[in-house]
Structures are given as structure tokens and as C-alpha cells.
Amino acid sequence: MxxxxxxxxxxxxxxxxxxxxxxxxxxxxxxxxxxxxxxxxGLNAVHFDGTTSARWLLDLFFxxxxxxxxxxxxxxxxxxxxxxxxxxxxxxxxxxxxxxxxGSLVNxxxxxxxxxxxxxxxTSWGWWLADWIPVPxxxxxxxxxxxxxxxxxxxxxxxxxxxxx
Length: 165
Fold this sequence. Notes:
The chain has 165 residues and is mainly alpha-helical. The chain is 54% helix and 8% strand. It has a two-stranded parallel ribbon. Strands 3-4 form a two-stranded antiparallel sheet. Keywords: Membrane, Transmembrane, Transmembrane helix.
């Protein structure tokens, strides 16, 4: 995901867009998005034993983020972010709170540590929605690519052009 943010910033600068104008956007229920993300990051930072309740909490906070994005789908770029996030959400829920990662790719990329929300998978149902796209040093899912593309679209379509001086 950091790549997509970097690409969107570089493209905005190259096309002479003012990134500060993004702060003028009016988000509805912004606290669902920011609060849900903050809680997810907090729960991921704390090591948990993989209990059902901890995974359920992570899914609940992911749902809050999805609801916040859905309620802001009128903003350009948010629909693509929503679609990618929904793909990720479905595969995570189907795999009991973890995002499957293609095991052979983990070995090929010599990744020694996966996040607490990831599990090694081979070809389980929905493997094509899992993390299997190598973008070193990351492994991404089609949902991640769509979310990232949505972030780029969001920045380019909502940041206004700078006035020629």
C-alpha cells in the first residue's frame, strides 16, 4: 500500500495538483474510517493468541471502515477503494479472520515473518482473492491492488490543480 500512496503523491505533483485541497473534502462519518483503522492497527500491534473473539473484533473494525467508505462513496475514488476492501473482507471472513498468503511465494521471497492476520495457504477456495501478487517486499491481493488504484484515483480526481502563476 505504501507504493500506491507514493505514486499518488508523485502523480499529483507532476500534474500540478495541490494536495492540501484534499483536506477540504467533507467526509460523512469519518470517525468510522479513522477509528476502525486505528483499532485494527492497535489490535494488530498487540500479540493475540488467535482466539475467535480477537479475530471477531478485527472483522468488526474492518466492517466499520467498510461502512465509513460506503457512506462516502459519492467522493471520487471511494467506489474503487470500497470494491477492493470488500474483496479483502470476504476472503478474510471466509478464512476465519486471516488473509491467506500463497505459501510458495512466501518461500520464494524469503519472507520470514507474516502479520498476525495472515495465514499460509496453497490453493484453498478463493485463493485468487488472497495475497499472491508479488510487489517486493510485499505480497498483495487483487483487493489491495484495487484499493491502491482507488487511492490514486481519489488523489488525482479530488486534488485541485494549482493555478498557473
